[in-house]
Amino acid sequence: MSDVATAPSQTLSRGIRILEILADAREPLSIDEVARRLAVHRSVAYRLLRTLEDHGLTARDAAGRVVLGSRLAALAAGVAQDLQAEALPELTAVANELGMTCFLSVRDHDDAITLASVEPRHAVASVAQRPGTRHPVTVGAPGKAILSLLPEGRWPAGASDELRAAATSVATDGYATSHDEVIPSLHAVAVPLALRGREPAAIAVVYLATAHDPARIAERLNRSAALIREALGG
């Protein structure tokens, strides 16, 4: 088979990258800013955005800036639908009991991506962790919990000794912690979620500095992880 037949589509790749840029931005972006972050001419970015908008994957706000489109929510709902269905009641229970945002994170190549998230119902202030949010699996409590389920041969290249020690400690402690690693000033606690036939996952909470004991938080998360595993036969 020729290289032409097997070469990836640059146009498709750029379109996907735009969706990732908008998801990471967490705010509307101008077309010029999208073009700059994509490293293409404005006219190229405009054509790509028009196509994405036609499919409901992007939209414009009142000022003409670009945001993710509502069609993405429908597509996301079909991803690991059974896992989301079993996880959401547990995420909701943990969020409301602890007053912290609780989320399910799964491995996606070298990233950890938020699949589902629930904010506490009556909290005065909570931290948003939107579904689709991604960060390198080598940082943050969810990433460490996920890596603890993987042999090092499947880790991203260049893992530090500190990261190896942190992932190893998950086997002993049953949970991982982080502070200031993904979002400044925020703490996170995560527990690994191993499910038969699926990529490694983690259940986590993210919160501002409090007097909460990470071990007590992890104990609650592990109860939910066990219920999810049991429901999915894993």
Tell me what the structure shows.
There is one protein chain. The chain is α+β, with helices and mostly antiparallel strands and 234 residues long. Helix content is 45%, strand content 19%. It has 9 helices and 8 strands. The chain has a 6-stranded antiparallel β-sheet. A two-stranded antiparallel sheet has the order 1-2. A hairpin with a 5-residue loop joins β1 (58-60) and β2 (66-68). α3 (31-38) crosses α4 (42-54), α6 packs antiparallel against α9 (214-231) and α7 (140-147) packs across α8. The termini are far apart.
How many strands, what sense, and barrel or not for the largest sheet? 6 strands, antiparallel
Q: Mean pLDDT across all residues, rounded?
A: 86
Portion in beta strands: 15-25%
The computed structural class is: alpha+beta
Strands, count: 8
Low-confidence stretches: none
First CA to last CA: what distance? 40 Å
Could you tell me the radius of gyration in angstroms? 19 Å
Q: What percent of residues adopt helix (DSSP H or I)? A: 40-55%
Described by the principal axes of the CA atoms, the overall outline is globular
Q: With helices defined by DSSP (H or I, 4 residues minimum), what is the helix count?
A: 9
Order of strands, widest sheet: 5-4-3-8-7-6
The topology string of helices and strands comes to: HHHHEEHHEEEHHEEEH
